[in-house]
Design brief:
With 260 residues, this protein is of the alpha/beta class. The protein has seven helices and eleven strands. It has a nine-stranded mixed beta sheet with strand order 3-4-2-1-5-6-7-11-8, with helices on both faces. A two-stranded antiparallel ribbon has the order 9-10. Strand 6, helix 5 and strand 7 form a beta-alpha-beta unit. Helix 1 packs across helix 5 and helix 2 packs parallel to helix 4. It is globular.
Length: 260
């Protein structure tokens, strides 16, 4: 199995080292193509107005001056052209990617692009807390990811579906198990704007998050992590809301062109 590893935290991120170790537990044929710098929060963006700069770091390891999406395209369509990967692993992200995070995350976007290009793709993220901010427990992801990934691959992944895996902020031995979950939803009151002033008195702003207790819906990714479980969430590329589509189709089916 040929594996492509990417991320959004950048080529020098500790989580990328963990992702490569996870990949090597599954295969001897591992390629790493990651952004030159931190691309957290860039979502599924492409670099259309700037050229992509490619730097070879070592054998089968490259840095791209671009987004995670750029990296996957560069790998599949250029570096690995003619012999594409069988699996894309995107991560291991520094921090969880759950609930609405999936719409912002460059980590998820790397897996999305792999899926669009017809490659089985899995996003990996490691949760941390205030006490582990400076020592993110990547060892938890490293210990559990290979087994979880093997099980998923053996069971099969439908076309157009990627898998979002989040590991809880716990030591490997303290993980309770695996929960297959739905995408959760946060209380958006945590999102705020932090206004400040620079040395010349000019205003500037940070997007900020206020820590507060969150509603934990049973069976959702947020709930699983809070309970000490690994969260496995299948996500689809097709964003169509089928029930609403069907309802609207019935309404518009009765419309007729003016004068008809």
């Amino acid at each position: 199995m040929r594996i492509l590893v990417t991320n959004d935290d950048g080529i020098h991120a500790p989580g990328l080292v963990s992702a490569e170790r996870i990949a090597r537990a599954l295969s001897d044929d591992v390629w790493v193509v990651a952004p030159e710098s931190d691309q957290s929060g860039v979502s599924h963006s492409l670099s259309l107005n700037d050229p992509l700069r490619l730097r070879e770091v070592s054998e089968k390891t490259f840095a791209v001056k671009g987004t995670p999406t750029d990296c996957v395209i560069m790998a599949v369509k250029h570096l690995m052209a003619g012999d594409p990967p069988d699996l894309v692993l995107s991560g291991v992200n520094r921090g969880q990617n759950v609930a609405e995070d999936v719409t912002y995350s460059g980590t998820i976007a790397g897996a999305i692009e792999g899926t669009i290009l017809g490659v089985r793709s899995i996003a990996l993220s490691q949760a941390y807390g205030p006490e582990t901010r400076l020592a993110v427990p990547y060892e938890t992801a490293e210990a559990h990811a290979p087994g979880v990934i093997r099980t998923i691959l053996e069971e099969g992944m439908p076309q157009g579906t990627l898998i979002n895996i989040n590991f809880p902020n716990r030591k490997p031995a303290d993980v309770k198990g695996v929960k297959v979950t739905v995408q959760g939803r946060r209380d958006q009151e945590i999102l705020t704007i932090d206004p400040r002033h620079d040395g010349r008195g000019n205003p500037y702003y940070w997007i900020a998050f206020v820590r507060r207790p969150q509603r934990l819906e049973y069976g959702a990714d947020l709930w699983a992590l809070a309970e000490g479980h690994i969260s496995v969430t299948p996500l689809r590329i097709d964003l169509t809301d089928e029930p609403t589509m069907t309802r609207y189709a019935a309404v518009f089916a009765g419309d007729r062109a003016p004068g008809s």
